[in-house]
Amino acid sequence: MRRTIPLLTIAVAAALGLSACVPQPAPESTRTDAATPTFTPTVKPTATVSPSAKASAPASDAVLIVQLDSASIAAGSTLEYSLAAVDAWTAALGIAPTRSAVEGPYGGDSELTALEWPGFTLTVPNDGSTRGASVRVSSPTVAGHPVVTSGGIGVGSTRAEAVAAGATEGFDSTELRLDTRDAPGTQSLQRPGEVGRQYVMLVLDGDSIVQIILPANDYSDI
Q: Global pTM?
């Protein structure tokens, strides 16, 4: 422990301009927090969100939350997976998608249109409905908006974070599943004799999530 410096030494040090190096009582008329730097931002910083395991995703105008039936980007908002909702998606993300026809698995027209933003593809039926629509996410953000599931999981999240958010094992170690639900009228190819299931698929490379696909299922082989 350092010895206490005599008051006389302090006074001399202060007279020599060395008060910053020697502890001394602060004058009553001045502040003593000069060592604490002040920060005056000139530009309001843009909030960023790192995908992580949470009980529920944050409701924010910045975060795009994708779920099995629809998405949202603000509390109370709904973004449908349909061609009729292109204007709503454009307004929400601040940028229009590129459009392209989707070829069928065996050639020909699939009657689907791909709406693409960098790192985010929404495939929708040409008739304006949501039947058969799907979402593929390959980036942590789209047009500057973090993209997460309802459990706060996004591209870049870890296997451990996904499991903590409720994810279960898929076909193998490269897949996890979130928000699993039964799909009446279907039969599971993975569980013969049982009803099929839909879910949010988390594709992993090692222990890191690299893609989110929804709705995925265990009853279709295409």
A: 0.72
